[in-house]
Design goal:
By secondary structure, this protein is mainly alpha-helical. The protein has two domains: 92 residues, no CATH class; 103 residues, no CATH class. Helices cover 57% and strands 6% of the residues. It is built from ten helices and four strands; from the N terminus they run E-E-E-E-H-H-H-H-H-H-H-H-H-H. The strands form two sheets. It has a two-stranded antiparallel ribbon. Strands 3-4 form a two-stranded antiparallel sheet. Strand 1 and strand 2 form a beta hairpin. The longest helix is centred in the last third of the chain and has 24 residues. The protein is flat and about 60 Å long. The protein starts with 6 loop residues before the first strand and ends with a helix. The model has no long low-confidence stretch (mean pLDDT 83).
């Protein structure tokens, strides 16, 4: 076991912390996102309760706009890196959306997309930036490798999957999103290099079609 690092400020010993907040994201020493998910859920509930008090008698469109502006931004901030994979954390985030939908439309059913969908799309955008070599993402992009072989159904820009033994490595946003990147159809990947706006439009269209087919298969 490694000895703890001792940092001092003058003669004052700086205590070691298990977590800290950086750019609005709560980072933990064990690389899990439980603290940040709890922080996000708590902050989102506060914003939603504020809306419910202020515009209690507003119409559905006003409540919808307030949720999108004040609450949804909290739930999606930095979601590319901390998108949870544990069911309990996903349900905790979805409860906020479901409560907002019931407040806006007086029913649990609404036309709002699930929270997991924009988080998934955000992860794909992040890998796109890394693959394109954007300055802030270049360090990640340099680690992406081409596979040793390509099958008939693979596109030319496929990324090699990296084997991971732990859940932390397996469900990190890069390794988790490589599978989505390789799943994208050739007509979307074949447009690279392109601007992020054009790529975003194509990815969202593909994801919406896939979700629609999934819903239809469940209903049938």
């Amino acid at each position: 076991m490694k000895d703890p690092l001792n940092y001092t400020l003058g003669v004052q010993l700086i205590p070691e912390a298990s977590s800290c907040k950086h750019l609005g994201i709560v980072l933990r020493s064990d690389f899990t996102w439980a603290d940040h998910v709890n922080y996000t859920v708590k902050k989102a509930w506060k914003a939603l309760h504020f809306i419910m008090r202020i515009i209690k008698k507003g119409n559905s469109s006003t409540k919808n706009l307030a949720y999108t502006t004040l609450v949804c931004r909290i739930l999606e901030y930095g979601a590319a890196c901390w998108d949870p994979y544990r069911e309990g954390q996903i349900l905790a985030l979805d409860r906020v959306k479901n409560k907002a939908a019931k407040f806006a439309y007086h029913t649990n059913k609404s036309n709002w997309e699930t929270l997991s969908q924009p988080r998934m799309i955000s992860r794909i955008y992040a890998v796109f930036k890394a693959y394109s070599g954007e300055r802030a993402w270049k360090a990640i992009g340099d680690r992406l490798q081409m596979p040793n072989y390509l099958s008939r159904v693979d596109h030319e820009r496929k990324i090699r999957n990296r084997r991971q033994r732990t859940d932390i490595g397996k469900y990190s946003f890069v390794n988790r999103t490589i599978r989505l990147w390789n799943w994208l159809p050739p007509e979307i990947i074949g447009t690279l290099p392109c601007k992020l706006k054009a790529f975003r439009k194509g990815v969202r269209k593909v994801v919406n079609v896939a979700n629609r087919r999934k819903c239809e298969s469940v209903e049938n």
